[in-house]
Amino acid sequence: MRPTERSPEQYLQWVRWLLLAVLLVPVVRRGLPLDGPWLWLWAGALGVQLLSFMPWPHREQHRLTLHLLLDILLWNAVVWLTGGASNPFSALLLIPLALAFLTLPPILAAGLLVVSILCQLAQLNAMSDMSEGHAGMSGHFEAMVVGFVIAAVLLAMTLLYLRRQLRQREADLQRLREAQLRDEQLLAVGTAAAQLTHEMATPVQSVRLLLEELDAAPAEVASEQARRARTMMSQQLERIEGLLEDWRMIAEDVRERRLTLLTLEELQASLQKTLAITRPGDRIHWSQPQPLEGLQLRADRTLMPAVLSLLHNALDAGGEVRVCSRVESGHWLLEIDNDGPLSPELQARLGAEFVPSESGFGVGARVSHATLERFGGRVLWSADNAGTRTRLTLPIAEGGS
User: Fold this and answer.
1) DSSP structure string for 155-217
2) Global pTM value
């Protein structure tokens, strides 16, 4: 239990301390002697309070039921000694019933309701004997008890209905959370699959070009051409196998929701190497104003495809891309600047929804944004006359600095 949480038993203990203090008020203000029924009542309240600190019964529901039963008897005794059924404060006896129907199973709460009604009937019978000489008072007492019974039954029915609605809402929320988790997993797998497809396009095209060269090669050089082609195709196939193995590991991480510590320096080196292979003709300038040794991020293997997608978006927008990597306030910041334009309407929608666009943004931005949010990160876009800036932030893992 978190420090800010309070159990029903603790609330009952506070109410009993208040009751013990209130019972001493007439003794202090009027100088009444603390003896007879009043002494037994105060001692009973103190005994119930001390009993509430004991761990018996061990089951929480049974222990709370016992404490509420003792409270109902105790509060009825207080009402009895202060006017019985004629006491207008008898409505306070509804408080233990409200707590019972909010926290206990319906069958136990209904039992406490029956006990409370029986206590009221017992007070009515005693008050009827005392009011035989007072015409009209008997009907008044009966009306007060009947009003209490009606109020208690209505309160019980209302709280049972509300509890049923709350359980239904909780079940609906649980289904929504499970659906959201499945969507996040599918989104993460989809991000990795899109990046895998992008990376596999290069070796597959290379193999296709080599086969076309073999078909077009003259017969006298076909043997040497075939030998070189086999070597190059073997290298490309090994690369495809590595990509497929990465895909398998990514799928396992997502399925098991497994997060690991990724070295920031190695992640950045992998990004640079991958872009050098997949986008050899694009102009991209990296800057790093401070060293990244020893810094780590807590994420899974879908992080790299998500960051690569943002870099590909910037490269697809055209012009030179400038990337600045630094650490600020316990976060890794990656700022990606390109010369492509970005309208205010598109800027407001990027990352929040799928946006059809021909400038290199759109679906990839939404997928990357959702993936980075899973690791506590954010992606923001801004634009001015100089171009567009994509700003990525991810928290540095504790102990990784």
Assistant:
1) HHHHHHHHHHHHHHHHHHHHHHHHHHHHHHHHHHHHHHHHHHHHHHHHHHHHHHHHHHHHHHS
2) 0.48
